[in-house]
Amino acid sequence: MRAIPARLREVKMRSSALVLVTASALVAIAPTAAAAGVTRTPSSLTVETQFWDAASEATGTGLLSGCTAVTGLGQVSTRSAHFIGRKSVDCGDGGFVLGFQAAFEGVGTTGTWRVLSSTGSLTGLSGSGALVGGPDCEVAAGSQGCIEDTFTGTLFLAPG
Question: What does the pLDDT read at residue 159?
Fold first, then answer.
C-alpha cells in the first residue's frame, strides 16, 4: 500500500473541511433566509476564465446580472484532479467572494460553490450552487489557456 504524501493529505483534509463547512452553511442559511422574508432568486454567472493574473470577463443573471469581472484569489489542486479555491466577483457597486470545489472530468470540470462574503449593494448576499466548466472559450492574448465556468444556484439578499 502506497503512503499518501503529506501535501496531498493536507489538501484532502481541507477539501473535506470545505464540504462540511458548505453543508453546515446551507443548513444554517435556509431557515434564516425564510424567517427574514428573503426571496430565493435563481441566479447564474458565466465566466470566460483566462489562465492569468488579471480579471476575466463575466455575465450574470438574477442577483448577479450586474457582475462583469471575476479574479481568481488562488486555488489548491491535488494529483487526483480535485481542487478548491476562491474568486472575487466585481458587480459594479457591489461584489462578493465565492468559494468553490471542483473536479476535472474529461474536458471540463464539475463542482459546487457558495458565497463567502459580500460588499456594497450585495452586502448580505448568501447562497450556493453548482459549477460546470467546459472548453467553450477563446484563449485571450497573453493567457496560458481558458475554461468557461458557469456557476448556477439560488441566492438570497438580506434586506439592508
Answer: 83
DSSP category for residue 92: S
pTM to 2 decimal places: 0.74
- CA 68 vs. chain centroid, Å, equals 15
CA distance 94 to 111: 25
- 3 state SS of 74: strand
Sign of the CA dihedral running 156, 44, 81, 56: negative
Give the Å distances, CA to CA, from 22 to 2, 64, 66, 99, 148. 31, 20, 25, 9, 23
Distance CA 63, CA 9 (A): 37
> For the CA atoms of the chain, what is the radius of gyration?
16
